Amino acid sequence: MTADAAITAADVRSAALTLPGTTEKLAWGQPTFRVAGKIFASLGDDETAMGVKCPREDRAELIAAEPEKFFIREGHDDHYAWMRVRLSALEGTEELAAILADSWRQVAPRRLVTAHPELDGSGDGKAGEREGAGEG
């Protein structure tokens, strides 16, 4: 997909479901994507944005740097390690896959993260050792 092509809900679904151990389940009338029963991504009501896990300490910096791409839903996301991503602002499927993989790593069991170093994100193959990796 080129940077000019818009990312769709179908692209989100396809990319999320390629991540190991991922299942899709409706919750609150919306598709959610889970690993080991924990939500790491969801599609919004109108399918123009997705929600992903993001440490609260990193979220403000990301939103400030790219407010056209990242945001929180006031009154809903403010107290959680969660943020929203506008699909139309993504630069392509590689960026989509990277954001989803990062969110997946935050909730996946450590054994699953360790078994998939290609999803590490840091390039050092030590995702299972990093802080915030899920317990398994």
Which structural category do the helix and sheet elements fall into? alpha+beta
- Principal-axis shape equals globular
Given as residue ranges, the uncertain stretches (5+ residues, pLDDT < 50) are: 123-136
How many helices in DSSP terms? 4
Secondary-structure element order, N to C: HEEEEHEEHH
Secondary structure: helix percent? 25-40%
Radius of gyration: 14 Å
Major sheet description: 6 strands, antiparallel
Could you tell me the number of beta strands?
A: 6
Compute the average pLDDT: 86
Distance between the termini: 35 Å
Query: Percent of residues in beta strands?
Result: 15-25%
Strand order of the largest sheet: 1-2-3-4-6-5
Describe this structure in words.
The chain has 136 residues and is α+β, with helices and mostly antiparallel strands. Helices cover 29% and strands 22% of the residues. The chain has four helices and six strands. It has helices at residues 9-17, 56-65, 93-107, 110-115; strands at 22-27, 30-35, 38-43, 49-53, 70-71, 82-86. It has a six-stranded antiparallel sheet. The chain is globular and about 35 Å long. The model is unreliable at 123-136 (pLDDT under 50).
Short description:
With 136 residues, the protein is of the alpha+beta class. 29% of the residues lie in helices and 22% in strands. The protein is built from four helices and six strands.
